[in-house]
Specification:
The complex is a heterodimer of chains A (about 90) and B (about 180). Chain A contains three helices and three strands; from the N terminus they run H-E-H-E-H-E. By secondary structure, chain A is of the alpha/beta class. Chain A has a three-stranded parallel β-sheet with strand order 1-2-3, with helices on both faces. In chain A, helix 2 links the parallel strand 1 and strand 2. The mean pLDDT of chain A is about 95. Chain B is α/β, with parallel strands linked by helices. Chain B folds into two domains: about 30 residues, no CATH class; about 120 residues, no CATH class. At the A-B interface, helix 1, strand 1 and helix 3 of A face helix 3, helix 4, helix 5 and strand 7 of B.
Chain lengths: ~90, ~180
């Protein structure tokens, strides 16, 4: 996924991605990414948490507008089955 | 800077030869340990400008999603993985989705596809005008080891599709 992201960015389309493994992300160097604490197969957390799904996309929209340094990775605070911070 | 496929290619071929038995036995930890990951030095960058409310978005997952009534599943047997992608319409419903990817637990995505492909949330954001437009078509890849085919054949085709669809921003969610 990181390679696809890099090639799309190189082709002139801004990208934002997610990940859950900081070590893997450090190797592949995505242009912009958000790091979550969720397991493989559920980047947006537990099923049915609509509010959080929306919130993470909104985090992504904000990241697009605020990240200015190639390779910025933003850590998101959300935790599995726990209430999200205000 | 282009990816260094010349060095990767023989390393990958060696990995395939050495890992086939472990792959067939499902020893994923072992084969990942030996995989010749590409580690580029540079970071590509296209500056973002404008406002999401005026822009066209597309979503891509690597969850191995396909439309079970109209598309073939991904190849889940080959050690190379499957470098093709499937086009998923934004009107897709949970019951339309099949998953062909052996290397993550599908039980949660089968309950809610949005946890790796939040298409329903993007549709809502489009209706509310928070994003300008959501393309009609979105994309799923699956498990891939063969980076040469991915980078030289599939991704150029993928990029031409999203450019033709007028995509301004791509949101990528791996599994």
């Amino acid at each position: 996924m990181g390679l696809i992201q890099r090639l799309v960015e190189e082709a002139g389309i801004p990208t934002i991605s997610m990940g859950n493994a900081a070590d893997r992300m450090a190797h592949i160097k995505p242009p912009r990414a958000m790091l979550v604490k969720f397991a493989r197969g559920s980047m947006f957390g537990e099923p049915g948490n609509v509010k959080r799904q929306r919130r993470i996309i909104m985090d992504g929209l904000k990241a697009l507008q605020t990240m200015t340094e190639p390779g910025t990775i933003q850590k998101l605070p959300y935790r599995w089955k726990q209430p999200d911070p205000e | 800077m282009p990816l260094e496929l010349d060095a990767y290619k023989p390393a990958y071929e060696k990995w395939v030869a050495e890992s086939l038995a472990d792959y067939r036995a499902g020893n994923m930890k072992e084969i990942i340990k030996k995989y010749p990951f590409i580690t580029p030095d540079d970071i590509p960058w296209t500056a973002y400008s404008g406002q999401p409310s005026n822009q066209t978005f597309a979503l891509v997952t690597s969850g191995g999603f396909y439309l079970k009534n109209s598309q073939p599943p991904f190849d889940t047997e080959s050690i190379h993985g499957d470098t093709s992608f499937r086009e998923i319409p934004k009107t897709v419903r949970q019951q339309d989705i099949g998953i062909a990817h052996l290397h993550y637990d599908h039980s949660l995505t089968e309950q809610d596809m949005n946890i790796v492909f939040p298409i329903e949330r993007f549709v809502e954001l489009e209706k509310e005008g928070i994003i300008g437009k959501l393309t009609d078509t979105h994309y799923s890849f699956s498990y891939v080891n063969d980076v040469v085919s991915l980078v030289t054949a599939t991704v150029p085709k993928f990029i031409s599709r999203i450019k033709a669809a007028g995509v301004d921003v791509l949101f990528l969610v791996p599994v």
